[in-house]
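pls design
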C-alpha cells in the first residue's frame, strides 16, 4: 500500500470534499501532503466555501495517517502567491512529485442571465486558477525529469449543461489546457491528465442553492427531495458518486503504473460518457 512513500504531493482545494479525499488517500500511501485552499467565500458563489478550520482538519486527518502535511491559505487566482508557495515547497523538499489541481466552484444561470462578475469569477477560479497552478509546478517537474499532474474538470466539461454555461466553458478549457501540457511535457518524464467527475457527494452539490435549482417546486428542499432528481441525470440512476470514486482515478494517474499515460480524460460519471460521441 505505501506506493507513494516520501512523494511530495501538492493539492489545491484541499480543505474539504474531493481535495481532502485525494490528500488522505495519498497520505495513507506514504505521500507528504502540501494542502492549499483559499478558505474564503466568493461573492458570486451561492454556497459557503471552506474555512480555515476545514484546512486544519485536513491537516489533522493527514497527520493521523503518519504522513506530514503543510497547509497554505492560497487563492489559485493569485499567481504570485502560488509561485511563492511552490518555491517554498521546493526549498523544503527539493522536489515536487504530484500535483492535483482540484480547486473549483460552481454557480448557476442561463447564458443570457449570467452577469459579467459571475462569468469572470468562474473562468478566473476554475480555468485561470488551474493554469496558474500548472504554470507554477511544471518547470520543477520538468527539471527533475519526473512528475504527475492531474487536473479536475467535470462531466459538464464534456458536453453542454443547462444553467452551467460558464462552468461548462471553464471545465472544457481545463481539458484543453491539460492536453496541451501533456504534449509540451512529452518525453520529459512528466505526465498530465484530467479526471472528469459527474455529481459527487460534496458541499458543492449538497447546499440550499443547488437543491433549489433541482427542486424549484419545493420550498426549502432537502437532500431526500433531490436524490431522485440527481439520479435522473445519469444512466446508472445513482444520485451521486462518492469522493473515493474520483480518488481511485487520481491514485492511478499519480502512480508509476501510469507512466505512459498522458493527455487522457478519465470520466467518472455513472454512464453519462455513453451519451458522448
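designed seq:
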Amino acid at each position: 500500500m505505501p506506493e507513494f512513500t516520501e512523494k511530495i504531493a501538492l493539492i489545491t482545494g484541499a480543505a474539504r470534499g474531493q481535495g481532502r479525499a485525494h490528500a488522505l488517500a495519498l497520505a495513507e500511501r506514504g505521500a507528504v501532503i502540501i494542502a492549499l485552499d483559499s478558505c474564503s467565500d466568493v461573492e458570486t458563489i451561492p454556497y459557503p466555501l471552506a474555512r480555515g478550520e476545514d484546512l486544519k482538519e485536513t491537516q489533522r486527518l493527514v497527520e493521523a495517517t503518519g504522513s506530514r502535511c503543510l497547509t497554505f491559505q492560497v487563492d489559485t487566482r493569485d499567481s504570485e502567491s502560488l509561485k511563492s508557495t511552490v518555491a517554498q515547497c521546493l526549498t523544503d523538499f527539493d522536489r515536487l512529485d504530484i500535483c492535483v489541481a482540484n480547486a473549483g466552484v460552481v454557480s448557476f444561470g442561463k447564458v443570457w442571465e449570467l452577469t459579467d462578475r459571475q462569468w469572470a469569477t468562474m473562468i478566473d477560479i476554475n480555468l485561470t486558477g488551474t493554469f496558474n497552478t500548472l504554470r507554477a509546478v511544471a518547470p520543477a517537474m520538468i527539471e527533475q525529469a519526473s512528475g504527475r499532474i492531474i487536473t479536475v474538470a467535470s462531466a459538464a466539461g464534456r458536453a453542454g449543461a443547462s444553467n452551467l454555461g460558464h462552468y461548462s466553458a471553464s471545465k472544457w478549457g481545463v481539458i484543453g489546457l491539460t492536453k496541451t501540457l501533456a504534449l509540451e511535457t512529452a518525453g520529459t518524464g512528466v505526465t498530465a491528465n484530467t479526471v472528469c467527475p459527474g455529481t459527487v457527494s460534496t458541499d458543492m452539490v449538497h447546499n440550499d442553492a443547488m437543491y433549489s435549482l433541482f427542486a424549484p417546486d419545493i420550498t426549502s428542499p432537502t437532500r431526500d427531495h433531490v436524490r431522485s432528481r440527481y439520479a435522473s441525470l445519469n444512466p446508472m440512476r445513482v444520485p451521486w458518486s462518492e469522493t473515493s470514486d474520483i480518488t481511485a482515478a487520481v491514485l492511478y494517474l499519480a502512480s508509476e503504473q501510469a507512466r505512459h499515460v498522458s493527455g487522457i480524460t478519465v470520466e467518472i460519471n455513472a454512464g453519462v460518457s455513453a451519451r458522448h460521441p
